[in-house]
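Weekly sync, protein design subgroup
Attendees: M.S., D.O., the rotation student, P.L. (late)

Item 1: inverse folding check
M.S. brought a backbone from last month's batch and wanted to see whether the design step gives back something sensible before we order anything. D.O. pointed out we never logged the input encoding, so this time it goes straight into the notes. Structure tokens as presented (94 positions):
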């Protein structure tokens, strides 16, 4: 029997770890992949904004950077909340 609190805390620490703890390997790896993609969006958005602040690129980079950054942060929040609740719920079922 899996402990639901442990699964939720693991998913809070890093999205997908709770799914791995519950034995849902594929689901956990998918969640970890999309978390990584979201982190990449945040990083690229930050780089584009930084380049615009250094005045080495055009205004389009600021827009693109802002969109990437906001999309990445939004995705991280959504994936994180989903991962915590899913890990908790699945551990309760087992």
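Designed sequence read out in the meeting:
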């Amino acid at each position: 029997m899996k402990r639901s609190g442990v699964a939720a805390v693991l998913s809070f620490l890093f999205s997908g770890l709770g799914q791995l703890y519950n034995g849902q390997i594929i689901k956990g790896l998918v969640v970890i992949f999309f978390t990584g993609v979201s982190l990449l969006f945040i990083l690229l958005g930050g780089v584009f904004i930084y380049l615009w602040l250094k005045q080495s690129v055009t205004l389009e980079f600021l827009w693109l950077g802002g969109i990437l950054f906001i999309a990445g942060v939004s995705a991280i929040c959504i994936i994180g909340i989903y991962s915590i609740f899913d890990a908790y719920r699945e551990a309760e079922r087992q």
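Discussion: The chain is about 85% helix and 0% strand. The chain has a mean pLDDT of 94.
Action: P.L. to compare against the previous round before Friday.
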